[in-house]
Amino acid sequence: MNYQYDALAASVRLKDITSCSRNRAVLHRIKNSDPGLTCLSMLDEPEDEDEFIVREGDDLGWLGYFIGRNETLKYLYVYYLPTNRDQVERFFFGVQRNKSIKAVDICNYLNESLSVMNLPHVTSMSFECQLEGEYAHYFALGLRRCTSLKKYSGQLTAEIVESLTTLPMLEFVSVWKNGGLAISREECMALRELLANANKLNHLDLSDVGLGDDGVKLLVEGLACSSSLTDGLLDLSHNGIGDTGLQALASSLASNGKVQELNLCNNNIGDKGLEALADSLAHNRALRVLSISENAAITETGVRAISRSLQSRKSRLEDLRLYRIYISEEGGKILGDALSINTSLVTLSLKCEENDVSIGDDGLKALALGLSRNSHLKELDLSGNTAITSVGLHSLGQYFQSPSCALETLTLYAINFGDERACALAEALGRNKSVKSLHFDVRGITTKGWKAFLKLICDSSSPNNVYLSNHTLREISGCHYIHLPASSDIRTSILGWLKVNKDCQTPNLAAKAKIMHFIPDLDMVPLFQWKLKFLPLVKSWFDTVTSSNVEFAASIRSRKLSATYKFVRGLPVMVADYSQHYLTQQLQRIRAKMSELEEEERRLMQV
What we know:
607 residues, alpha/beta, 17-stranded parallel β-sheet, 17 strands, 45% helix, 10% strand
């Protein structure tokens, strides 16, 4: 069919194949592979300039032809196609020649024209509309021709899943059911076959499709007999899965563990199901990320079970999410004991919301005690635990000041901080050398609380206190928006010193930069008792201080010369003797080198 267009392409007039000047301009850009046009949207109502508005008088065959020849388009959004099957068929016939478009988004109540969809080079497709009956059938037929497809996001029907199973490159699938309809047994069986046959599949999102326990049992059958989801993600959140379903999944994970990330949040899981999952982790070396958040039936018994798995040397979990789980103070102690032994966990979330059971001060203290012996955790989220007071935050000091502390990010949103909690947290962070980012609500913190943080990152009361300040912290979220009196420069100072911590390559360099800022004239006299032994160290100290500020960099060079001069002025005889000794050594080296050269010259002449 394209040969007909090829023969006429040189002579066709754009105004004869478009309905308006707007579409003519867009088609001209498509025809000439305008590098500024990488995204094309097809609609029936105008919104933006770069869109093609499909109306009577637009020849979609020519539109498809020029899209097929285009080399710059990357994204195609099809929000409208007419009911004329011949027009749509010609459109897709042209588009199939395009090799630059990689992502297609279809969003409309389309018709049987979908059956002629032919997009062999597209790697990503998003289908955002609900199709019923024969229209879903037409789409499934067209989907089979998308042989390069790697990513599909859209409606779930048995026939659509069967079409996905035929695609050899498929890696990512995210499906949904509309109107709260539960998944059918036929659809579950189709998903089972997808898992059994799509060997490259590494991301399967089945959240909120109504699987239930029976659906999970069917999925497990497909998961057990294939290599799909190897090192991949399986999202089963919001599916009404109970203990029976999780026990079946846990058995599969124990015997054929491949999934790297498992999301089970917001189901009906209780302690028995979690105990089965925890036991399976002792035999599973693949799972790295686990979310069991928002399963209200889990109690301390379940927390104890997951804590046992963390204590196992075989555990490879790196990210554990326990949002809105009944942790309580006893749960904090249980987790603390586990984390004192665990060597794999990097991220832990114990977030909760209003009316949830908060971990509390005693629980946080027990958690901190266990973490003080942990050298692997880097992110901790305690947001929403409103029972934590300044006492609990202060108890974090034993963890923060532990030599093994590796925590980099602490999140404490949805806790009404105020000055008391702010001061406690700032004091707890004293001398910490790992935390880089703090996230908490700044509301209620006044000048008193922010002064505590300013003192934390730069205590300017003495050179020694500046040196002992925190030079690791780089970010305090919300600090840009704090409200203080207009005359206060606390916010500017905090942001400035956080930037110094961030810009300097090491905490030691940040400490030197702060000392140089506050101490304009460093006293060298106390060093004279060691005579000239400290002069090279002083020089080296200045050499390592750097700054992106031009004026400050110039000041560093000036102070280096000033410090050297103080040694010369304070110890003139020793400096002179040192200089004479240095020159004598250099002269001896030169004479030795000249002798070597003369000897070499005589040897060559004899040859």
